[in-house]
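Example 437.
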Amino acid sequence: MTTPPATVWRDILGQVRLNHPRLARGWFSELQLTAVEDGVIHIGTCNHAQSDYLQQHCRAAFTEAAQAATGRLVSVTFDVGPAREDQSRVASLGSGPDQLLLNPDYTFDNFVTGPCNRLAHAAALAVADEPGRAYNPFFIHGPVGLGKTHLLQAICHAIRENRSDITSHYISCETFINDFIEAVELGALHRFRYRYRHVDVLVIDDIQFLAERERSQEEFFHTFNTLHQSQRQIILSADCSPPEIPSLEERLISRFNSGLVALLDRPCLETRMAIIRKKAKLRCIEVPEEVVRLVAGRIDTNIRSLEGTLVKIDALSQTQSGTITLKVALEALGGDSGRAVKIPAILEAVSKRFEVKVSDLQGKKRSKAVTHPRHVSIFLARQLTSQSLEEIGGYFGGRDHSTVLHASRTIERQADEDPQFRAMLDEIASDVKNGAY
Ligand code: ADP
Ligand code: MG
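Predicted structure in complex with magnesium ion:
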């Protein structure tokens, strides 16, 4: 067994990042080349979630890079680093229910907090810290794409990392239902019950799928009681609050409500922006602030779409200059943005809001009552349309590109300092986008 020079490892990582930007993650820098043995390069990871991700998605990319870096027909394998061997998986094998793989990106470190999710996040941390004691059960609900699965898995990651004495099992509600049906068919209910009732932390995602499943609800009720009575932690998520789950038995509703029920709400603009920055960093993508703001301004419901858009912009930039610019972002957003925003609509909206004439916005007057809304119009034109600086200048009495840039930056700065002003800008932008003008 030999350990190759560090330069080889740097080469391999560099090539993977360069040739497979969509697979690359910030945490790749925590990986280590541990050994080369019989033509196999061993790469050490921090946990099983990382090695599962790498094994499933990145094996070919790393093999190709390793062959290029060494000039040999080597292959690659991923192991959990010896110092970091986490006992929880070993302990859980053969006992609890079959688990879903955890996504290595869904950690507390990668979760952005804001007013929309502060309670759920704080409670999740407390539960991960003291399973079975802090809040039991812990129930997270909210619309699709707002981070329920992310938080559930973050709890599992934290427990696996910090509590080797405890087993946590992350499953989907479907797994529970299918396991139950299978157990009934095979006459193996006792085995099913043993597996589900002897885990320390049971995490079930999308529990709303229990709706209208009478027998599964009955079984889950008993599973719940057994775990709860012995102070085992139960963590659940759903797309609505317990009483809103259709045909959920009253006794289950009251059980779910007996611990902590936390809502994940839609994130505000600041939080969306912070999430884009975080995702970009995780995927090693450089995104200019104006693109962050543009994307966060356009997509305000589902974080999954926010991330999808970032990936799309990155992919489009790869086919062009390799750098993400406002132009590339607008092009990528083009198909998704619904209606194309036109500058006259922006002028109409600003004129109404500030009570100035459209002709003044486009004219030469220099009083503050006119220049401020004019700057606002220019800023919104930059944010919401794909017009060039010159084209925008053309709408405002033939002003040149540096004037447009200056006006836009002035407003950007004011909005950074004044959240109320930012909210007003967002409101105008959303009216224009929704076709109110
Ligand atoms: P849900 O289970 O509620 O449908 P997910 O947990 O699958 O949503 O989240 C969808 C995507 O949005 C995931 O990539 C997740 O990492 C991301 N996401 C959601 N909320 C946040 C947040 N607060 N910070 C960082 N990423 C988030
Ligand atoms: Mg989910």
